[in-house]
Amino acid sequence: MTNFSVPLAHPMLEVARFDCAAIDELIHATVCRYHPAPVVACAWYALLGTLALRHLYPTSQYSFYAGTFEIFTSPDPDGSGAWYALCFDAHHPLIPDLEFHCWIAHPDPVQRTYIEIIDFSARHLEARAREFGILWNRDPIPDFIWTDLAGLEQLKVRQLRPIVELTDRISRSLMQDLLFRQAWQALKALLQERSLSGSLAREQ
User: Fold this and answer.
1) What is the set of domains in the chain, with CATH numbers?
2) Torsion over CA of 162, 163, 169 and 175, rounded to 10 degrees?
3) pLDDT at 141 over 80
4) Does 7 score more than 70 pLDDT?
5) Pick the residue with more confidence: 204 or 131?
6) Would you give the DSSP letter of residue 102?
7) Are 115 and 107 in contact (CB under 8 A)?
8) Does residue 160 sit in helix, strand or coil?
9) CA 161 to chain centre
10) What's the CA gap between 127 and 136, in Å, rounded?
């Protein structure tokens, strides 16, 4: 049974205005330029992504989340039917304040669901699993995840559970960080430039 604290509904139609891959490219380039270790920068990817999406979609409610994340990485080679998993367990961390994952979601407050869920740091999940010595033998993960519940099920994401206090603490800390603020200003300038030139627009 997949464990999500809030279920996801169908993706928003508004997202079709801009090209998802182009947005991901700018966010990834910004993280690589300003963060010393992008492979462990899920909070940067998620908060920069949240700010970018709110900038592009001013009426949206894209939100930053931090908490527990688990994804299956490989079936048991012995054929038992079990799966290995990469799990950042923020609810029961072995290393407090260091074991968590961050992502973006767009809520639907009326239906109490998520319309979309986004993870621009997904490109690093395999590297993180191998860093921890976790077997990785599964279908490739895309560079970024931008999907709904059905898509998460297909990607074998088992848990996605935010923690309000952790989310607030991480977002406040990053917004007070000078380097992060510089990264956001640089990304915002790129978004404005690309928006004006039309290079962020989705091809019809």
Assistant:
1) 3-191 (3.10.550)
2) 20
3) yes
4) no
5) 131
6) E
7) yes
8) strand
9) 13
10) 9
